């Protein structure tokens, strides 16, 4: 938490050789006819390889903007994103993104299997290996029984599983998720949360999970990065010291879970009320 | 059983219309309105002979070449214009200009430039058929969903793969709507391209019958045109159902929800 060269030091940084993903002084200003809109003011943080971090913030706090910049879909106005020390200028090969709008991220003209297979096919992965990866991914998300369905024949939760399977089969080093469960019902959501923990452990992938759901962020993450309201800075970067084995009933019943949840909730309320961390107000 | 029922429905109205026509021309002596019997007789006499080879098939051939070329040109140009904004800005005024020109007025001009050839007739057909396909493709390409496009982008799907897996299927429903219009315009232009200074073809033959007061023959030619239209529509529907199976399914699910 000690200030370094950047003006808003609230996010945790690591020595360059330990960081998988680095966000450095990121600022994003949208130029519109009605004037400039500053969506993100100054963000700096690092993710270790294999870390599962949640990014939580009030609505309109530029979460999606941040994620799009990290994914290389959008260029930040200032600052940079580094993946394994290389600056991100377009979508990196070793990164996969799962979007909130499952109904609009899968190709409706392709069957489930084809959807999962497409990125691999496009990369020229040989057929035999492709089949194995697709089978494993569908198996991992519990969809081995519907490879010949079209996505729109499935429920919302199942569609999002297909999108997760597609990301898993792609074997990314970094998996970005943009409020992936915001549009599914509560029970499905709990299942999918556990699915993410399982997949993360199995693959050792680095996950950045964006959500507006405080419980979800505490339950899932090893770390929760709390964003301020717009223009966005980091409100707090919090370690989640819950046991590694988590389950919906027992973890959520732990006193420590309640404390952490309480803390994050307070911070979000502060952020909504316009409170900003000291370092950012000086900047 | 289901098939029989379908055929029954499809044929019921034509049969009723012919019956009405038959009843209302009973005892009719009007030279310009043939009875169904006379028309059927003349139809067989006129078209089941060498005219199939000399007039009908060449006309259909030009129609197919014209329509297929128009579809290919329309889709390729539409993909390009829809994908690049600068190209859209560059071509839009010119496209509006050419689109506004009714293709029949081009017939005399093209006749002078190209002579009275098959090529000229095909160009007339293309000049009218290309617009619905082109404009629909442009719109279809522009309307690609942002999230879907981002998904493809993050998985490194670009260039030709993007066109094949994302742009074409996504614009498919719009393109097919354009093709449907293109077919009916094509039939009209096929006839018109043969009405001036031609010496063969369906359009020419019908005009010829008209001028020589061979009225039942003229009517039978019109029936041939109608039948070609019906055949084209069936082929189109069959193809469209296969290509856009996903789209019809998706729509059904959306409507049921």
Automatic annotation (TrEMBL), chain A:
Entry-linked SUPFAM superfamilies: P-loop containing nucleoside triphosphate hydrolases
Residue ranges annotated for the ABC transporter domain, each copy included: 24-254
A Pfam family assignment: ABC_tran
Swiss-Prot/TrEMBL keywords: ATP-binding, Nucleotide-binding, Transport
Molecular function as annotated in GO: ATP binding; ATP hydrolysis activity
Alphabetical list of InterPro entries matching this protein: AAA+_ATPase, ABC_transporter-like_ATP-bd, ABC_transporter-like_CS, ABC_transporter_ATP-bind, P-loop_NTPase
Superkingdom of the source species: Bacteria
PANTHER family (UniProt xref): ALIPHATIC SULFONATES IMPORT ATP-BINDING PROTEIN SSUB, TAURINE IMPORT ATP-BINDING PROTEIN-RELATED
The protein, known as: ABC transporter, ATP-binding protein
Species in which this protein is naturally found: Arthrobacter crystallopoietes BAB-32
From TrEMBL, chain B:
Keyword DNA-binding: no
UniProt keyword list: Cell membrane, Membrane, Transmembrane, Transmembrane helix, Transport
Its membrane topology: Multi-pass membrane protein
Residue stretches making up the ABC transmembrane type-1 domain: 56-240
InterPro entries according to UniProt: MetI-like, MetI-like_sf
Residues that span the membrane, as ranges: 7-24, 63-84, 96-116, 122-138, 183-206, 218-236
Main location group: membrane
GO cellular component: plasma membrane
Nucleotidyltransferase among keywords: no
GO biological process, one term: transmembrane transport
Family classification: Belongs to the binding-protein-dependent transport system permease family.
Name of the protein this chain belongs to: ABC transporter
Organism: Arthrobacter crystallopoietes BAB-32
Lineage: Bacteria, Bacillati, Actinomycetota, Actinomycetes, Micrococcales
